[in-house]
Amino acid sequence: MNRINKKLLENKKLLSIYFTAGYPSLDNTVSIIEGLEKNGVDILEIGLPFSDPLADGPTIQASSTQALNNGMTTKVLFTQLKDIRKTVSIPLIIMGYFNPILQYGVEAFCKKCQEVGIDGLIIPDLPVDVYHDEYQEIFEKHKLINIFLITPQTSEKRIRYIDSISNGFIYMVSSSSVTGSQSGFGEAQTQYFKRIANLKLKNPQIVGFGISDKTTFNQATQFAKGAIIGSAFIKYVSEFGVNNLKRFINTIKD
Amino acid sequence: MNRINKKLLENKKLLSIYFTAGYPSLDNTVSIIEGLEKNGVDILEIGLPFSDPLADGPTIQASSTQALNNGMTTKVLFTQLKDIRKTVSIPLIIMGYFNPILQYGVEAFCKKCQEVGIDGLIIPDLPVDVYHDEYQEIFEKHKLINIFLITPQTSEKRIRYIDSISNGFIYMVSSSSVTGSQSGFGEAQTQYFKRIANLKLKNPQIVGFGISDKTTFNQATQFAKGAIIGSAFIKYVSEFGVNNLKRFINTIKD
Amino acid sequence: MSYNINTKGYYGDFGGAYIPEMLYPNVEELRQNYLKIMSDSEFQKEFHQLLKDYVGRPSPLYFAKRLSEKYETNIYLKREDLNHTGAHKINNTIGQILMAKRLGKHRIIAETGAGQHGVATATVCALMGLECIIYMGEIDIARQAPNVARMKMLGATVIPAKSGSKTLKDATNEAIRDWINNPINTHYIIGSVVGPHPYPDMVARFQAIVSEEIQWQLKEQTGKTKPDYIIACVGGGSNAAGAYYHFLDNTDVKLIAVEAAGKGIHSGESAATSVLGKEGIIHGSKTLLMQTTDGQITEPYSISAGLDYPGVGPMHAHLYKSGRAEFLSITDNEAMNAGLELCQLEGIIPAIESSHALATFKKKQFKPNNVVVLSLSGRGDKDLETYINHFKL
Amino acid sequence: MSYNINTKGYYGDFGGAYIPEMLYPNVEELRQNYLKIMSDSEFQKEFHQLLKDYVGRPSPLYFAKRLSEKYETNIYLKREDLNHTGAHKINNTIGQILMAKRLGKHRIIAETGAGQHGVATATVCALMGLECIIYMGEIDIARQAPNVARMKMLGATVIPAKSGSKTLKDATNEAIRDWINNPINTHYIIGSVVGPHPYPDMVARFQAIVSEEIQWQLKEQTGKTKPDYIIACVGGGSNAAGAYYHFLDNTDVKLIAVEAAGKGIHSGESAATSVLGKEGIIHGSKTLLMQTTDGQITEPYSISAGLDYPGVGPMHAHLYKSGRAEFLSITDNEAMNAGLELCQLEGIIPAIESSHALATFKKKQFKPNNVVVLSLSGRGDKDLETYINHFKL
Ligand SMILES: Cc1ncc(COP(=O)(O)O)c(C=O)c1O
Ligand SMILES: Cc1ncc(COP(=O)(O)O)c(C=O)c1O
């Protein structure tokens, strides 16, 4: 069983963290992964930086630009992750835009992911249909779970379709926004979270976008299986570096 | 008999000088007139300065602008000329553009000219026809001779017409140009001078534009009755003032 | 009573050819030939072909919905701003360059103030491969740099007029002087309905394409054969002459001429010739002009370089004196605000000249069923810097 | 083989909608409605009425006599430079604003590089009274000040894109982000045949008015139903798409696409996507784009801001890969010289984008009996400063 599926079976709210590989320094990747696992994070999303990350807000975009300037590339990332499974056992997901993956070669990329022990992929600009028609087989062959996003605007029909072709969790975007643009959830979000919960999907949902502290984490996970923190974490490491990750985790979970 | 007609009967080549009233100083008018008569000039053209003298070149235009800045106006000029006939007997012609005369009132202007002893007018932008149809009577009533211009481009037919309505001299523009733009006469001018002489007009011709020294004066008067100097004189007074006019005349006539 | 020119070259008391003899052959050659040439069918064909394929005519007659709603009437904008080079000026330069070619001239001169006419002239000279000399006041050269650059790109020589006030009036004097000095091979393309006869009439006839189009466009769009009002700004008066032309003698059509009041009619910085001017002679024509009591021509002022002229054409002097047209004066500020309003209501940035005409709607109430045609004589690209500075954008 | 789009939103291998889920509802709403709306006769009527009365269409098809003589062939210029706001861009914004209104949107966003599309968008928003937000790279804002001022005059809010290279690509990213953040009330007016399906097709259809007119204008003027060649510059590709549209599947008509080689194709400062690009995804579409081996999008360079884009639309990627169109690369210098030549031979100052297309005549010999139509996509007023500096005028 894929580590993601296994993790989702655990009877707890899951904390997932996104970070940009190669940021703040090129070779922080492994220590961030190890540090976050040690501090109780459940799932990691390793951001493969892209020059034009159009679903992301300024914080993640700036970290991506910096990472690229630091020399991060797809190859470098795979080299850094070569031995990651010797020390880390939580699910690892690569989150990246489609173009760098396409240039690497989708099959080669999936193969490499499997080799280093990646469990799943989030590719925001790979549409569900294209995935389904062209890449699903390859992903499955390499035991990669592809994670799809839904938003408050996604129709029920489409949600059910996405649910039907998903086999891990659904990435539930908290609101209509790019990353990092929310502060706190209001009534609209709660309604949305409830509405999705009531759909009784086969895949659990993990909420992303706008989670930055205990309050938002708890709000998000009241109805969902877990929550993903991105921008808030990037901001933290920008300021405090990668050595005391515990302090950050303490701001989210007791 | 009008002083102009009388002067034209003299058996000599006539030297006529143009100056801008009010230049270089507002009150130079009388001393220039007296000084030039004393030094043997035959006819004077007193320039009534105009803001937009479009038949004139840069030298005369600049002197006009300066004269206006000095405070010259039609009224001031007439005041300055009030007693001119007490000291001066050569023909005096006012040369000015039509608009200031129109504003003064053509009849009033002519009356005033007669009062102070002006003998003729040169109004470059008063067309022959308009003069003939509207103003000839008034001019004649006030004993003013209106002087018309001809140029190398004027047709014979038109020259003869102009000759027929003239009763003084014809102002023969030496070449197609504004004042002050020639230096020396060539074959084309000589041909032109000859051509006009051969027309045997009833009015004598006085050449203007481009006369600046003995050579050009002699060339111009070989076939014509006289010549008019403008820009060259203005340049002289700009540099040397109005007190030693003899020196200027010496550069023209022996 | 006709409001058009008579056989002697006058509109009522105004017009004529008050020119020095040195200009007589040039002007006379033109006078004797212009009507004959213009009525030649080959000429008309070539003229209309260029207007269509090169200038982009017909310019639209555009019903300005939001502007009409705001002022509770029916406003149609005649879109001369869409012409090649950005104003009505090109209608005239196309006509005159064809005229010049038929007269055998191969050297073209022109005066320009804001540079619009200079650009339009340089344009047609490039089109025909003729030498082009543009006179422009030294001060205008400095303040209208983009148009100077356009003229140079088009291959024209721009000569600074350094005399007098170094602006349009002086550039005109210099052009006339050039013409005096080059009487045989040179045609002088005057840029408005000013100058000695036959210029005002010739320019008006070339610009008359504007009202010719208004006639059939209005018919097509509204079924009416004539508007109730025609509004146009007046510098020298060519865009107004063009917009009025076919309606001049149809007194059902009310004509509104808008002049630049600058900083206020009586501020001493204005170009409202009809109010401040008196009859006189300027640039070879008897007309209304701003002058001292002594008959010296005074310097006008307007924020709009194209209206910054101390006279109006003789047609307009006559329209004013006879009462045929109503004359309004619009200040810099009123014009600028009207220009900005058009931008924001209709998405059209007008030339500041045209903005003066637009300011009429704040001065005068039209009826809900009135059809009001306004000559949008040019686009505002040339005026961007002035707008920016004025509104601190 | 068809060179038009297929039912799945692809031109051959290129196109599609590679968008994040957050954009799905917006893009899907458009995809489901655009053809239905566009084929509605009321829509067509309103669209064509505005093109005629507001934009000034048809734009002339002008036989450039002197240019043709020089290059010993028959050159017709399609005069998009005469459109309101000065380029072909307005054809598309007029179409999209009507689309937006029918979709019930009351807030409009757009990206712009040189500012032409921003001005065209601000214009139609003013015309319709809709809120308008324009994203523009911080660097472009500084170097295209006049167009920024135009947008502000038209009432638009201009927001600097401060991310990435602070130019067009980043402005596009910011606009997409805005759309993600405002999925219900906002329509995003993309300015070229780029972006996720259905944008490339929708924009091409709005621009297709250009080739529709070429068809009947050419017939009227020459009796021929089709030209031998059509030449157009390619930034994103919208003016080319419009000029080619009705001839896409008529392979008698040879298509020439001109890209910006900047300082030289291999100088590292270029925007010649067909030569330097590889297949990939940019702004939601699978197409050719300039990128590192790693798939990072690289910064293009061209003296012409409108060609300074690292991709081409999917239609063009397909035209290239299939060999249907011939692609040429023109350097800054070649383009500037061709622009100056048009000024001096025809009296038309072209946009530097269009100057790239004009430089074709120095690269490729046409036959004396060929009919060559060139899309003169815009006027050069916006580029005066660049021309002035380049030629030291
Ligand atoms: C756009 C525009 N409108 C109006 C004028 C004023 O000239 P006229 O009164 O001859 O139309 C000018 C002159 O440059 C102009 O450029
Ligand atoms: C005048 C002009 N031509 C061409 C282009 C390039 O765009 P496209 O390739 O979409 O026609 C632009 C873009 O701004 C432009 O302004």
Could you walk me through the main structural features you see in this protein, from its secondary elements to its overall organization?
Chain A is of the alpha/beta class and 254 residues long. Chain A contains twelve helices and nine strands. In chain A, strands 5-4-3-2-1-9-8-7-6 form a nine-stranded parallel β-sheet. In chain A, helix 9 (187-198) runs parallel beside helix 10. Chain A is globular. Chain C has helices at 24-39, 41-55, 65-71, 89-102, 116-128, 138-143, 145-153, 168-181, 199-207, 209-222, 238-244, 273-276, 314-321, 332-346, 352-358, 360-363, 384-391; strands spanning 10-11, 14-15, 61-63, 74-79, 107-112, 131-137, 157-161, 186-188, 229-233, 254-262, 278-282, 285-289, 325-331, 371-376. In chain C, the strands form four sheets. Chain C has a six-stranded mixed β-sheet, with helices on both faces. In chain C, helix 2 crosses helix 4 (89-102). The chains are: A alpha/beta (254), C alpha/beta (393). At the C-D interface, helix 2, strand 3, helix 5, helix 7 and helix 14 of C face helix 2, strand 3, helix 5, helix 7 and helix 14 of D. One pyridoxal-5'-phosphate binds at residues 87, 89, 114, 116-117, 192, 233-240, 306-307, 351, 353-354, 377-378 of chain C.
